[in-house]
Amino acid sequence: MDITVAVDAMGGDHGTHVTVPAVLKFLKAHPEANVVLVGLKDALEAELRARHAVTGPRLRIHHATEVVMMDESPQSALKNKKDSSMRVAINLVKTGEAHACVSAGNTGALMATARFVLKTLPGIERPAIAKLLPSMRGSTCVLDLGANVDCTPQQLLQFGIMGATLVSALNHQPNPSVGLLNIGSEEIKGNDVVKQTADLLRNSQLNFHGNVEGNDIYRGVVDVVVCDGFMGNIALKASEGIAKMLGQFLKEEFTKSWWRKLLALVAYPVLSSLKHRVDPRRYNGASLLGLRGIVVKSHGGADELAFYYALEQAAEEAKSGVLHKISDMMANAVVPTPQEKSVEPQ
Amino acid sequence: MDITVAVDAMGGDHGTHVTVPAVLKFLKAHPEANVVLVGLKDALEAELRARHAVTGPRLRIHHATEVVMMDESPQSALKNKKDSSMRVAINLVKTGEAHACVSAGNTGALMATARFVLKTLPGIERPAIAKLLPSMRGSTCVLDLGANVDCTPQQLLQFGIMGATLVSALNHQPNPSVGLLNIGSEEIKGNDVVKQTADLLRNSQLNFHGNVEGNDIYRGVVDVVVCDGFMGNIALKASEGIAKMLGQFLKEEFTKSWWRKLLALVAYPVLSSLKHRVDPRRYNGASLLGLRGIVVKSHGGADELAFYYALEQAAEEAKSGVLHKISDMMANAVVPTPQEKSVEPQ
């Protein structure tokens, strides 16, 4: 199956200097893929020229006159930047000219624009940001990672369905297990929203494991971890923070003396294979799930390799038909009413 | 200053097998300290005998007939175990026979019992669990780590005051900086509780830095990070999870072949100094802050060394007079009313 990916080529901290070489690498590695580079035509042509590349049937440029700034508010992006590279890339997904789009632009603006342009799938109240994180047993899909600070139990159930469908489609896993992020594995733990969500998940068609704790994400206890965007974001950022600190400490220990530096040289294959294994760039590419189109968010600071992985993520999602699968799941979903009604959908 | 620490010798996964040797090590290292071992007399005497140790003026046994189970509900512990080692140890703090107590028993029961027996300090609505976590610049005090799933802005402000006072007392730092855990550093981010808390912190006498994100805990951006117990617990557990996974990966990489195993032997001093630096046992000992007495919670699975560090934490807090300092801070605290009243104290 031929896949066309629309790329917001201006997004991210490094813009075309990262997006264009990543796209070239992606096209080389994936003969079935086509890319539409969306952004300022002159800048894109200059970047391609600098890399001795030319447009052709597999690589087109789609001119867009505006750029959403990394610190621009979602409202401003929506209202004032109707011809931004971000919005035009999403439009290409809406019109069917692209199967998916990828942007390293600012998350708030991307989510707001994608939601406005594409709308949510039937039965989904709010889109969620989902990501596959490394675990001791492979990977764990965690959602929401920051799109929704407050969620109702129904919305969290929808996240569970979307996450399970994503994992099932990408990893060809028939019935992925779903856990609910909580502060203890016992049923009595947590706040009202979490308790009501557990009831909903328990009575749903999902393979619900029960409550899981923060460390279970990396233990690989379940395939999907459901939480609101506040908790998901805190868990993700805290993990990134400690991983970075440990990496820094490892580096410091191996550079403390000339003897240790020599040792690091000898141990290079080991250290480099460890680095590869936990390289966050390999896990770049978060999915904006629940929309009527595939949108993948790359880290803003992504380099060429990281952006390449976000492109692969988008292509994989398009190929696996994850969108139709979520629609089907939602159409067949038994969404029970929570036992208590104290939390109203927003 | 002489310090007496009451130890719940039966608590934790390993009971006396861990608490007694840790206490012996602690008494040896701290000539100014005394310990009261609280628990089943026979078990304690047998354990001391096995370690060729005897009681004396610096090491007493206080008999307690009951033990709180690790999975026992706080309600059951409070109601049915009035002569538990945990409760009697806390009682010794209340009566002034000990300056502090340490328990590796179950967190819920410890918090409920400590709160019931000792009561909270004036101006403090709820105690919080605080811990110093390692950072790239030393350590960061994070609270609450799981005692309170839902918090009002006023309670979060109280946590800020308690955390700042703890850091100031332990690290002799005059005006520690305080950050509010959020999903973005911008003021507009977060839910209503977080926004109102930021207003309170901004108008308080604290050195408020503003919002911080999960990774900032380990970057050491601020001295104190304030959050509700749900978020704090998720951040802590997620961090522990990824740290354990990275440690496991490092081990796997260094044992993949005989050549790599040999390399690990040669690199032993480096790996071991890294291990020491990030050894979670060195950070064992969470403070139950806001009570009229010093209570330190050790990890349930703590080994001898880890429990030793929890004992040191308790002694440090007693010596630094953190309790009186929190009282003074609260007495002088300007606790402004939040601008919006939508969130009521619970």
Automatic annotation (TrEMBL), chains A, B:
Keyword terms of this UniProt record: Acyltransferase, Cytoplasm, Lipid biosynthesis, Lipid metabolism, Phospholipid biosynthesis, Phospholipid metabolism, Transferase
Localization per record: Cytoplasm
EC supergroup of this enzyme: transferase
Enzyme Commission (EC) number: 2.3.1.274
One Gene Ontology molecular-function label: phosphate:acyl-[acyl carrier protein] acyltransferase activity
Pathway it works in: Lipid metabolism; phospholipid metabolism
Domain of life, source organism: Bacteria
Catalytic activity: a fatty acyl-[ACP] + phosphate = an acyl phosphate + holo-[ACP]
Location, primary (coarse class): cytoplasm
InterPro entries with a match to the protein in the record: FA_synthesis, Phospholipid_synth_PlsX-like
Job description of the protein: Catalyzes the reversible formation of acyl-phosphate (acyl-PO(4)) from acyl-[acyl-carrier-protein] (acyl-ACP). This enzyme utilizes acyl-ACP as fatty acyl donor, but not acyl-CoA.
Subunit comment: Homodimer. Probably interacts with PlsY.
UniProt record similarity statement: Belongs to the PlsX family.
Entry protein name: Phosphate acyltransferase
Gene: plsX
